[in-house]
Prior knowledge:
The protein is of the alpha+beta class.
Amino acid sequence: xxxxxxxxxxxxxxxxxxxxxxxxxxxxxxxxxxxxxxxxxxxxxxxxxxxxxxxxxxxxxxxxxxxxxxxxxxxxxxxxxxxxxxxxxxxxxxxxxxxxxxxxxxxxxxxxxxxxxxxxxxxxxxxxxxxxxxxxxxxxxxxxxxxxxxxxxxxxxxxxxxxxxxxxxxxxxxxxxxxxxxxxxxxxxxxxxxxxxxxxxxxxxxxxxxxxxxxxxxxxxxxxxxxxxxxxxxxxxxxxxxxxxxxxxxxxxxxxxxxxxxxxxxxxxxxxxxxxxxxxxxxxxxxxxxxxxxxxxxxxxxxxxxxxxxxxxxxxxxxxxxxxxxxxxxxx
Length: 332
């Protein structure tokens, strides 16, 4: 009767083990397998006979075998086994990460411990963890970059502001322009920023809407976030300057056009953006010293985007031309 109950228990245990999603097995000593479930056979392609003893090590990645053997060598003293390693998938030959755990149960008859173990696929989890590390590194880089830009905006604004109110007004406008780009990038970090959207949003923020006095247009261009940040601030400076001193000041007949084109005959292709103000004479009150906007156009854009920038103020208005190669720095 006792023997029959033991057989029933063994049968139930076998059914249970064979229906688990993990790769299950039994062993004695220090990793001498005595049985493996069909999950192991199906995944590794090793037969039950090939896996006997330490034959199962053939499925372990060569770089991980030493760690696995060491874990088994020390397991009898600890009474438990826990180790992560890679296993080869028999069908594809590819390796996946598994977490192997086992517990020893003493056999009353022989006194020798028997191990009941399972190997759980953690490959997707490890990939997610690695991806999370990459994202955290990227986030830290982005935060440092943003703080650097904000410090630069504050420093240059402070150097050219005449009063505290002047500083506050310019700093807030530039910070808002920078924040708009960040908001767009947060919504779609992989998609980049559409150049037409960027230009239209900055002009709208400066109370200049497309219509009789404002015209924008050009081919579809998706910008990388660094390029979008730099061009957003450039367009903001041009628009702010126009509202205060140029074509968009007051209720005159001045007009602004922002157009861009791509010359694909060159390698790499070249993007040319032209800001043009017409119907306005130079304002004698216009600041003559270099400020944040001038530094941005003449120094930052050439450094960040390898751009060539020309800025002309003539009797009929203002023309700013930004020419930049459409390489990896520009396109998303």
